[in-house]
Amino acid sequence: MLLANSLRAEVSSLDRGVPISLVQSMDQLLDQTVAQPRFNLVLLGVFAAISLVLATVGIYGILSNGVRARTQEIGIRMALGAEKSSVLRLVVGQGIRLALLGIVIGVVVAVICTRFLAGMLYQVRPLDASTFAGVAFGLLLVSVLAGYLPARRATKVDPIIALRHE
Asked: Is residue 36 part of a domain?
């Protein structure tokens, strides 16, 4: 860009009829050509992050509500000798089952939508198994973390209080 004025002067001295109105660097030209695909991918990434947060909050909310509704049942289980680890597994297992259902539905929809996204992918096959596996593992991990707090709350249910409400 430092040479733009001298370039204009040189071209003007050779032929005054050649207009030079738009001088850009190669970086600026490349930025303009990739601006729309970059925007699309950033937008897609933002929506993916929002959907991950919504899935986490949804799983947490469903499990938290389930623990609240089943407080008496959990208290009775613990009064009859259930260990805290089994109650923890019960609640987290419900979250994992919800996540697995969502993953199966999501994989089916993703396979259907890959033909629309194929043009936006760079050096990745549309049906890349490692990408699908990584995302599924990540969602399972998030569902375990989202289910851990309600599960921990379920293990702190006092059996005597739960039995009094019966």
From this structure: no
Nearest to 94 by CA among 67, 76, 133: 67
> Is residue 57 a contact partner of residue 21, using CB atoms and an 8 Å limit?
no
Tens digit of each residue's pLDDT (9 = 90 or more) over 23-53: 777 788 888 888 888 898 899 899 989 998 9
In a domain, 156, yes or no: yes
Instruction: List, in order, residues 6 or more apart from 144 with CB less than 8 Å away.
Output: 92, 95, 96
Q: Is there a domain that residue 7 lies in?
A: no
Q: Quote the pTM value.
A: 0.68
| Phi-psi map region of 123: left, alpha, beta (phi>0 left; psi -120 to 50 alpha) | left
Contact 68, 154 (CB under 8 A): no
Distance CA 115, CA 104 (A): 19
Does 15 reside within a domain?
A: no
Nearest to 147 by CA among 57, 60, 52, 56: 60
